[in-house]
Write a structure and sequence with these properties.
Layout (H helix, E strand, L loop, with lengths): L1 H29 L1 E5 L5 E5 L5 E4 L1 H9 L6 E5 L6 H6 L7 E3 L5 H6 L4 E4 L5 H6 L4 E3 L15 H9 L4 H22 L7 E5 L16 H8 L3 E2 L14 H7 L3 E4 L4 H9 L2 H4 L2 H4 L3 E3 L14 H12 L6 H13 L5 H8 L14
Parallel strand pairs: 3-4, 3-6, 4-5, 6-7, 8-9, 8-10, 10-11
Antiparallel strand pairs: 1-2
Helix pairs in contact: 6-7, 7-13
Length: about 350
């Protein structure tokens, strides 16, 4: 009798052990999530993320607007040039500035458990150090930049379930904005060419974007075309003075923290100041909020409407729309002067973001 009872006990104990073992396996599996990034790579990421190196202005903007700012340990260094970032989100002053080429050892020492990065050239070194990497872009390597506009928000919504509702709300707002603009201005393929100057870095007037990029998508919706659409997206800053004269764009838009410095450069250049778009006063600044609004960001609806209003019969109240957008996504009340300064690429005090030299 004793022997039979003992055997029963052993069997029961073994069964419980199997249950606990299965339970542990399930918990281990559920502790990660697999994300497909914008390069088509499947990335296994811990569910409980604490310190993210968000080396992208676009993703940093969206993380903050979706209520995930406390997860950010560091951001792309150009993001820190923009004084509005700390104004709209004071905790941004604690973000460490990273370059795309940051050493994996530095990220390990900083306790980073995920890298979201726009330039994946050094991604393998991060992966080899045990840090998962999600690649994102402001362009599409395989065709027009269409649904890719929503990829970063979708990725963030999957990584952080607590932010999914906000991410979905933003996606809907962008889709509704595009539909509303197209309904009013149509979808005529205009021959008006607009040259875009990316002023997020001090790379001069020839630093732009090519086709299949976010800026080309914005211009398509606004019924104009990107003057440099035939160029490769990462190499268009090699355009020469002679080629710029041949392009002779209908208009020019200059963005980023360096935009005021670049306008000085334009005015001091015999080639650029002689362009028709300059003579006809069709040089337009791109407002800078949490980031330059031409990036995929919480401010994307603003940029879409702004561009549509410049080149079509489309009404856009910059002051009212910008106030509403910044309040909605960053819970900050802009003054009229704030809007004016943002629209000129200036900081809250009306000063340049970066020194003229």
């Amino acid at each position: 009798m004793f022997k039979k009872s003992f055997i029963t006990f052993l069997v029961a104990t073994a069964s419980l052990g199997s249950v606990f073992a299965c339970s542990n396996i399930e918990e281990s599996t559920e502790s990660t999530i697999t994300i497909t990034d914008m390069e088509g790579k499947e990335v296994v990421v811990p569910k409980k993320l604490k310190k993210v190196a968000c080396i992208s202005q676009s993703a940093t903007d969206l993380m903050i607007s979706f209520g995930l700012g406390e997860k950010i340990a560091g951001t792309y260094r150009s993001f820190t040039y923009n004084k509005w970032a700390e104004e709209l989100y004071p905790q941004a002053k604690n973000f460490k500035a990273y370059s795309y080429s940051v050493a994996a050892e530095e990220l390990v020492n900083d306790g980073i458990d995920l890298v979201i990065i726009q330039d994946t050239e050094n991604a393998d070194s991060f992966r080899n150090a045990g840090i998962p990497v999600i690649g994102i872009h402001q362009y599409s390597p395989s065709g027009p930049f269409d649904d890719e506009i929503y990829d970063v928000a979708n990725i963030l919504g999957k990584l952080f379930p607590e932010a999914k509702a906000k991410a979905d709300t933003w996606i809907k707002e962008v889709k509704d904005t595009i539909s509303e603009i197209k309904a009013k201005v149509g979808s005529i393929n205009s021959e008006k060419a607009v040259y875009y100057v990316n002023g997020e870095k001090a790379k001069g007037l020839y630093y732009s974007d090519g086709g299949n990029s976010m800026i080309s998508k914005i211009y398509d919706i606004a019924n104009v075309r990107l003057a440099t659409e035939k160029y490769e997206v990462l190499n268009v800053h090699k355009v020469s003075d002679e080629e710029m004269v041949k392009l002779n764009p209908y208009a020019m838009m200059i963005g980023g923290a360096y935009q005021n410095n670049l306008i000085d450069e334009l005015n001091n250049s015999a080639v650029w100041s002689s362009l028709d778009c300059n003579k006809e006063n069709r040089i337009y600044r791109i407002p800078v909020c949490m980031t330059g609004i031409e990036n995929v960001s919480a401010e994307t609806p603003l940029m879409l409407k702004y561009a549509a209003s410049l080149f079509n019969d489309y009404e856009f109240d910059m002051k009212a729309e910008m106030k509403a957008n910044i309040k909605k996504y960053f819970n900050y009340n802009l003054s009229d002067m704030d809007v004016e300064n943002m629209s000129k690429g200036l900081d809250k005090k009306g000063k340049r973001m970066v020194d003229a030299n």
